[in-house]
Amino acid sequence: MNLLGIDFEDWYHPELVKPFVSQEDRKPAMFKGLDKILELLRKNDSQATFFTVGELLKSNPEILDKIISEGHEIGFHTMNHTRLDSLNYELEFRKELKEFEKLTDGKSIGFRAPTFSLNKKSSWVIDELIKNRYKYDSSVMPAKSSMYGIPNAQKSPYRITSSNIEKDDPSGTLIEFPLMVTKFLGKTIPAAGGFYLRFLPLKIIKNAIRSYQKINTPSTLYIHSWELTPEYFPKIKLPIKNQFITFHKIEKTFSKMNELLKEFEFTSFETYYKKI
Ligand SMILES: [Zn+2]
């Protein structure tokens, strides 16, 4: 079984985009693409977890029912897509957890850190999640990339604690679902989704999923809402590197995802969690 997390956020939320969009230009648009994403999952008989930025539920509360009523799961992706290691964020995060709980009627049991920003500096988040009855996290990328990654972390699900975010800690109660990685030209690289799904040939992603299946470990994939519905992403100008990472082959994401969903079985983290 494979796990699919859709990071449901607006076009101005990604870290490489946010600083280049003024406050008044931040107009919600991604809610318009939800039906298309739900249809993609429906026709492939797949379930997913929507790690949702809380702000989207405030402006468009109907999102919650649409997601839940089709058997998918809602998870937390902070209220405004803030990096966990931002200065003095801990106190704010506590308030955000409560706010999200209200917005989702207590339905969220899973968390994904924006830009996979769970690291030694921000591991306080694990204790906060446990205090708020969360069951799992999926924020660890066991490879090094330019923006994130914990290269020594375990690749299969494990019990994570704030003092040990890399390996199974028997005293832990929160399950970590690390993102899928693969070997490419002798290096371990992320292969779970986003830019890497767009950049790498689909064959490499498929082989990575198969190699996880062989050892009976769920492969954990992610995709951003704005990658599946780029038609709602305004054509903005970004610095060249940000432009490349954000938009490279973005128009191919939907069909690539469709192929993966057709070939492999995907479910939500909650459904999988309940079986282990
Ligand atoms: Zn995100």
Polypeptide structure, described:
- The chain is of the alpha/beta class and 276 residues long.
- The protein has one domain (2-275): Glycoside hydrolase/deacetylase (TIM Barrel, Alpha-Beta Barrel), CATH 3.20.20.
- The protein is 35% helix and 14% strand.
- It has helices spanning 34-43, 54-59, 62-69, 89-103, 124-131, 194-199, 202-214, 225-228, 240-247, 253-263, 269-275, and strands spanning 2-8, 49-52, 73-76, 110-111, 136-137, 158-160, 174-176, 181-184, 187-190, 220-224, 266-267.
- The strands form three sheets. Strands 1, 2, 3, 10 and 11 form a five-stranded parallel β-sheet that branches.
- Helix 5 links the parallel strand 4 (110-111) and strand 5.
- Helix 4 runs parallel beside helix 5.
- The protein is globular and about 45 Å long.
- The model has no long low-confidence stretch (mean pLDDT 95).
Compile the SSE list and pairings:
Blueprint: E1 2-8, H1 34-43, E2 49-52, H2 54-59, H3 62-69, E3 73-76, H4 89-103, E4 110-111, H5 124-131, E5 136-137, E6 158-160, E7 174-176, E8 181-184, E9 187-190, H6 194-199, H7 202-214, E10 220-224, H8 225-228, H9 240-247, H10 253-263, E11 266-267, H11 269-275
Parallel strand pairs: 1-2, 1-10, 1-11, 2-3, 4-5, 5-7
Antiparallel strand pairs: 6-7, 8-9
Helix pairs in contact: 4-5
